[in-house]
Amino acid sequence: MIPPVVISTDRFLLKSLIPDDVGERYLSWLTDQTVSQYISAATLKPSLDSLKQYVQERCEREDVLFLGIFEKNSGIHIGNIKYEPVDSENRFAVMGILIGEAIWHGKKVAAEVISASSKWLNSTRDIDEIILGVARGHEAAIRAYLAAGFKVEETNRIEIDINTSLTMVLRYS
After folding, report:
1. CB-CB contact of 46 with 115 (8 Å)
2. I want to staple 128 with a disulfide (CB 3.0 to 4.6 A). Which of 3, 18, 90, 172 is the partner?
3. Pick from 111, 101, 102, 172: which is nearest to 141 by CA?
4. Model confidence over 33-92: pLDDT tens digits?
């Protein structure tokens, strides 16, 4: 079993996501059109059980860091950040983030969470390159990733449709 991870930021606790964290709130993010339009897994119309199974499968893998984003004061689960795969041999990880609670959109959650979690990966797993794919039309996300230090850059580490998406890279080396 992989030991649980807890990373603290100014406003949030990032904690290893477990099936018990999956509830109606989390499921609602994947059915909310404004949130889910940029999430490929959301097109699968998950159920609570399938979502819990998805989280459990990731809990068991050493090449995945799947963290829930919990607001410190209230303890409310507002989103997730996932690195999959975490390739320690080649020193890179592929990242995805979901800020599910609309009240937190536009409040620099991504920059805070990405900074803390990617620095943790760099210092504990020697990861020096974080990669993501993003829809070209998702301007708010692109601005957030640029603010977090990512640069638009082609990479062969992930496959994307270059007509609809672009890749961004954050380097620590």
Report:
1. no
2. 172
3. 111
4. 665 555 655 456 789 999 999 999 999 999 999 999 999 999 999 999 999 999 999 999
Measured from the Cβ of residue 98, the count of other Cβ atoms closer than 10 Å reads 21
What's the pTM value of the predicted model, to 2 decimals? 0.92
Residues 6+ apart with CB under 8 A from 84: 58, 61, 63, 64, 65, 66, 93, 94, 96
C-alpha separations of 15 from 28, 37, 44 in Å: 20, 25, 25
| Other beta carbons less than 10 A from residue 66's beta carbon | 21
Q: How far apart are CA 84 and CA 53, in angstroms?
A: 16
Position 126, amino acid? D
Q: What does DSSP say about strands 92-99 and 129-135: parallel, antiparallel, or unpaired?
A: parallel
Q: Tens digit of pLDDT for each residue in 81-132?
A: 999 999 999 999 999 999 999 999 999 999 999 999 999 999 999 999 999 9
- How far apart are alpha carbons 7 and 69 in whole angstroms? 10
d(CA 67, CA 138): 23
Tell me which residue of 145, 91, 152, 138 sits closest to 113, measured CA to CA.
145
φ and ψ at residue 35, rounded to 5 degrees: -85, -45
Tokens representing residue 173 in the block: 């080396």
